[in-house]
Specification:
This protein is α/β, with parallel strands linked by helices. It contains 18 helices and 27 strands. The structure holds 1-O-phosphono-alpha-D-glucopyranose and zinc ion (ZN).
Length: 552
């Protein structure tokens, strides 16, 4: 006898539901409204067309509500005919580990509870993400269909069953549906061991190389402790803030110069370690630091591309690379030198998925601290850290030395991103409208004496399936390959966030100037671009903001 309830859904507001990156991200308080979570999960089960008896992977980044959401999800999976579920112990699975587990186990889909780098806790954010059998986020057509369904459904299916003991590895059940609690780290660590030269990295640490990894009290702590300290022999204490906490320790688990300030300070101290790194809430982002040296994510992608053949998994060379449009064109230079294609995609990981799946690219990355490869279908923070360690172990040079050699060989692209977070929606749109209106005039004119060679709104045609995406950011390109880009964030949960990206190639002595540990924003060439951008977007007048909230 089964004890499946079909509950009727109370009326709750869904009007503001907007499909985001593979799912739904909202204030935690939205998810604690009666039936809200159940509504969205049922919409997934109704829409995703999972084959009867399908296996599902379920996990999350460990934030507040994670365990509750997983128990609800398991009961609903049982009531919706799911065949079996693999779930990470304690409900934990980093996003890249979930992607790998889906692929390795042959699951039909994965449900990941995470709001990525957004703050966690009752006053923070929560999210639900659907990944498909490829291991990558569900495409927009699917997330839109789920969101549409969530506005019309009037019942959901849920089993009446006790909680599954999520901390006990092994096979459990919800009614007749097997639920296997697995070690969230083991498969992922084995994958990393199969990609990188662990022997070389072990020797590096044995030779006294010191590192600081900041788990930011989110999902990656246990992964980093197992891989860096246990398997690679890094000193105990290499991983700091390694215990996942429901509120991420009250911090903002986003590895950038603002939110990972403690790590930046450790790398600036007189006794700083050789290497510093951090990941975000769900483990898909990474920040790379050398001693008193910040590696901009755009440069990091270029350096990984340049040295890829030092890594066993990429020894045979790269099929191609891809970067999101606002990412600096440093990697394009390396791709040209290597004679491999370089694709420019809209912001967001899903656009890389088709290229990875079609074998057109091997590496890809974004300026927003995301880097990845064919090994999973998500960006992967720890993977990028291990890639750097592999390069450092083979080359035995400092992080700074490796980046400077890259600049000497390919030139340096100064880069900065300014975020005006949570401005009123209208103000955000008004800034974009103002810039858009100026584009025709800018075309063919000059800006501070430099010819404007490009002024357009970026649109993308997917080379694999021919689908098109319009309205992907406003670009102004100058004759010396300098560039200004305006975009509105698609991931914020309140108001609008304006992102302003500035890029300026420099050569010779300028390229060799000391890389400011806090980024390159203070460079006069970027200040000049910023002046143009502020004037074109009338940002101060339209938003009332005299300064951005985050500068990277
Ligand atoms: C941001 C980043 C983007 C990344 C996304 C998900 O999106 O800019 O590169 O893919 O988060 O991590 P945005 O808020 O800019 O839309
Ligand atoms: Zn993330």
């Amino acid at each position: 006898m089964t004890a499946t309830d079909i509950s009727t859904i109370a009326t709750i507001p869904y009007a503001d539901q907007r499909p985001g990156t593979g799912g739904l991200r909202k204030r935690t308080s939205a998810f604690t409204q009666p039936n809200y979570l159940e509504n969205f999960l049922q919409s997934i089960f109704d829409t995703a067309q999972l084959p009867a008896g399908a296996a599902l992977v379920v996990g999350g980044d460990g934030r507040y509500l994670n365990r509750h959401a997983i128990q609800v999800c398991l009961r609903m999976a049982a009531a919706n005919g799911i065949g079996s579920v693999l779930v990470g112990r304690g409900g934990l699975l980093s996003t890249p580990a979930a992607s790998h587990l889906i692929r390795r186990s042959g699951a039909a889909a994965g449900i990941i509870f995470s709001a990525s780098h957004n703050p966690a806790g009752p006053d923070g954010d929560f999210g639900v993400k659907l990944n498909l059998a490829s291991g990558g986020p569900a495409p927009e057509s699917v997330t839109e269909a789920i969101a549409a369904r969530s506005r019309t459904i009037d019942q959901y299916r849920i089993a009446t069953a006790p909680d599954v003991p999520l901390d006990e590895i092994g096979e459990h059940a919800v009614e007749g549906m097997p639920v296997v609690v697995v070690d969230p780290v083991a498969d992922y660590a084995a994958l990393m061991e199969s990609l990188f030269d662990f022997d070389a990295i072990r020797e590096l640490f044995a030779a006294g190389f010191r590192m600081s990894y900041d788990g930011m009290h989110a999902a990656t702590g246990p992964y980093a402790i197992e891989i860096l300290e246990r398997r690679l022999g890094a000193a105990q204490g290499t991983v700091v803030n390694g215990v996942p906490l429901e509120d991420f320790g009250g911090g903002h688990a986003d590895p950038n110069l603002t939110y990972a300030r403690d790590l930046v300070e450790r790398l600036r101290a007189p006794d700083a370690p050789d290497f510093g790194a951090a990941s975000d809430g769900d483990g898909d982002r990474n920040m790379i630091l050398g001693r008193r040296f910040f590696v901009s994510p755009s440069d990091s992608l270029a350096v990984l591309t340049e040295h890829a053949t030092l890594v066993p998994a990429y020894r045979g060379g790269l099929a191609g690379v891809a970067r999101s449009m606002p990412t600096s064109r440093a990697v394009d230079r390396v791709a040209t030198a290597l004679g491999i294609p370089c694709y420019e995609t809209p912001t967001g990981w899903k656009f890389f998925g088709n290229l990875l799946e079609a074998g057109r690219i091997t590496l890809c990355g974004e300026e927003s601290f995301g880097t990845g490869s064919t090994h999973v279908r998500e960006k992967d923070g720890l993977w990028a850290v291990l890639f750097w360690l592999n390069i450092l172990a083979v080359r035995r040079e400092s992080v700074e030395g490796i980046v400077r050699a890259h600049w000497a060989r390919h030139g340096r692209v100064l880069y900065t991103r300014l975020d005006y977070e949570e401005v009123p929606l209208d103000a955000g749109r008004a800034v974009m409208d103002a810039v858009r209106a100026r584009l025709p005039d800018l075309r063919g004119s000059t800006l501070g004496g430099r010819a404007v060679v490009l002024a357009d709104e970026f649109a993308y045609t997917d080379p694999v399936d021919g689908s098109t995406s319009a309205g992907q950011g406003l670009r102004i390109g100058l004759e010396d390959e300098a560039r200004i880009v305006f975009r509105l964030s698609g991931t914020g949960t309140a108001g609008a966030t304006i992102r302003l990206y500035l890029e300026q190639p420099v050569g010779g002595a300028e390229a060799d100037a000391r890389g400011a540990p806090g980024g390159t924003t203070s460079h006069p060439a970027l200040e000049t671009l910023l002046g143009h951008a502020l004037a074109i977007g009338e940002i101060e007048a339209r938003t009332g903001r005299t300064a951005p909230s985050v500068v990277t």
